[in-house]
Design brief:
- The protein is an alpha/beta fold.
- The protein has one domain: Rossmann fold (3-Layer(aba) Sandwich), CATH 3.40.50.720.
- The protein contains eight helices and seven strands.
- The protein has helices at about 15-25, 40-50, 65-80, 105-130, 155-175, 195, 205, 220-230; strands at about 5-10, 30-35, 55-60, 85-90, 135-140, 180-185, 240-245.
- Helix 1 links the parallel strand 1 (about 5-10) and strand 2.
- The longest helix is centred in the middle third of the chain and has 28 residues, at about 105-130.
- It is globular, with a radius of gyration of 17 Å.
- The chain binds nicotinamide-adenine-dinucleotide.
């Protein structure tokens, strides 16, 4: 098993990419903590993991709250004795809006969850990973952290920030045997894209705007996350791995 004897936290583990990653991590031997705002979805992920013979617990958290993030790390270590992997994945999108019409409150909310949430995960988990003798962070950026898209200023900026935050932490903690990588998913079939699906004009374009001509599944992203979390990626740090069906080829 590729994550035998490892302990992992997955933020945003109540659905979509986070749930898939949690299930595959558990299948590969990791004990997992599912951290999310969504209590019902989080508990459902735990149930699915237990049904497949794995070990998991749910922890309710808003990732943009420093105290809650710190408590999540402590609770995981209290429960499992150590921490090896943090998948900083929780995130939100926002409806299309021109920058001049984007409310400052909405800007702050997106940056707080998508970017500050990742920073807080790194800030509070590094001391614990050092105690474990090293470990791995995987941070969820986006295709839209690598290329611009009209009317998504806050999302673009938050996800681009994750790319450089990842490089920064890789530099700061590499000598502590801590690897820090990001993934940049393209259009993936989760609830975050439900709004786009209802747009009869845009969806046929968005859903095929990559080399493979289709959207991806959460499992396809989770497989990349598993690789980056595992020892198979032992010489990879500071990287952002595109999992986008070739979305950046456009
Ligand atoms: N689906 C895509 O097309 C796509 C593409 C690129 C990047 N992403 C990114 O992937 C990540 C996962 O999204 P997904 O597609 O699985 O969507 P999703 O909506 O299914 O999952 C996001 C999860 O994050 C949780 N969450 C939101 N805000 C939170 C907060 N403040 N604290 C704790 N949990 C919170 C939600 O409850 C949800 O369970 C996000 O960071 C998203 O931006 C998704």
């Amino acid at each position: 098993m590729r994550l035998a004897n490892k302990t992992a936290i997955i933020t945003g583990g109540a659905s979509g990419i986070g749930r898939s990653a949690a299930m595959i991590f558990a299948k590969e031997g990791a004990k997992v903590a599912i951290a999310d705002l969504n209590i019902e979805g989080g508990r459902e992920t735990v149930k699915l993991i237990e049904e497949q013979g794995g070990t998991a617990f749910f922890y309710e958290i808003n990732v943009s709250d420093s105290r809650q993030m710190k408590n999540l790390i402590s609770a995981t270590v209290d429960c499992y004795g150590q921490l090896d992997i943090l998948f900083n994945n929780a995130g939100i999108g926002h409806p299309d809006v021109k920058s001049v019409d984007l409310d400052e409150e909405e800007w702050d909310r997106i940056i707080d969850i998508n970017l500050k949430g990742v920073f807080l995960g790194i800030k509070h988990a590094v001391p614990q990973l050092k105690k474990s003798g090293g470990g791995a962070f995987i941070n969820t950026s986006s295709l839209l952290g690598l290329k611009g898209q009209k009317y998504l200023a806050a999302y673009n900026a938050s996800k681009a920030g994750v790319v450089l935050l990842t490089k920064n932490a890789a530099l700061e903690y590499g000598r502590d045997n801590i690897r820090v990588n990001a993934i940049a998913p393209g259009v993936i079939d989760t609830q975050i894209i439900e709004g786009w699906k209802n747009d009869e004009k845009k969806w046929p374009i968005i859903s095929r705007a990559n080399a493979l001509g289709r959207i991806g599944t959460p499992e396809e992203v989770a497989n990349a996350v598993l690789f980056l979390a595992s020892d198979e990626a032992s010489f990879i740090t500071g990287a952002t791995l595109s999992v986008d069906g070739g979305g950046l080829t456009f």
